[in-house]
């Protein structure tokens, strides 16, 4: 019988726990394998070798960031997702909340309603059924619409016991008059203003799926 070495954790895990290996031993071959797995899993393709190399570089930088956070022993862990080949500038486009500094005229929260003795140490509303499945805003700065619908979905569930997926697309298409700008950003209070003025928000099933672009034809049709 021929003895072989113990397989060990592999370069991927060694580099994750000891990033200096990249500098000392030049152990970066694991990145090639992980990037290939990433491309296959998320059906990624690039126009040319230059774009491929650029996105692979972004992938490596994001991987280093993920590993550094996971080494810190925080209360959460990070993992590679479909955005791992984006640069910081490209990711910034997705952060569509644009504060105008304008007061939203909302009433202050009445803290007297809180009974501190009854506040649990943890609360996961997913376990209560108050949160819809994870949604994807795609390459569009529409986070303001997702934050708005998510808040109302949860509040509606607590009031009625029914969980409904509401339409981000309707807010994208129709709340321009309140000062929102579709994929170019907006503010949640402007979305709430539009909802109150129009008398409600349509469900995703009724209005149609999220498109990650403004459906200008539907906007004019609804005017």
Architecture overview:
Helices cover 46% and strands 0% of the residues. It is an all-alpha fold and 223 residues long. The protein has two domains: 11-86, Helix Hairpins; 91-99 and 126-222, Cathepsin B, Chain A (Alpha-Beta Complex). Helix 6 crosses helix 7 (168-174) and helix 6 (143-160) crosses helix 8 (188-198). It is globular, with a radius of gyration of 23 Å. This is Cathepsin propeptide inhibitor domain-containing protein. Residues 119-223 form the Peptidase C1A papain C-terminal domain.
Helices, by number, come to 10
Return the average pLDDT rounded to an integer. Answer: 84
Structural class by SSE content? mainly alpha
First-residue to last-residue Cα separation: 80 Å
Q: How would a textbook summarize the main sheet?
A: none
- Any idea what the shape is? globular
What proportion of the residues is helical, as a percent range?
40-55%
Q: Could you name the ranges where pLDDT drops below 50 across 5 or more consecutive residues?
A: none
| Total number of domains | 2
CATH architecture of the largest domain: Alpha-Beta Complex
CATH homologous superfamily identity of the largest domain: Cysteine proteinases
Give a count of the beta strands, DSSP E runs of length 2 or more. Answer: 0
Order of helices and strands: HHHHHHHHHH
The Cα radius of gyration reads 23 Å
At CATH level 3, the topology of the largest domain is Cathepsin B, Chain A
The CATH class of the largest domain is Alpha Beta
Report strand %. Answer: under 5%
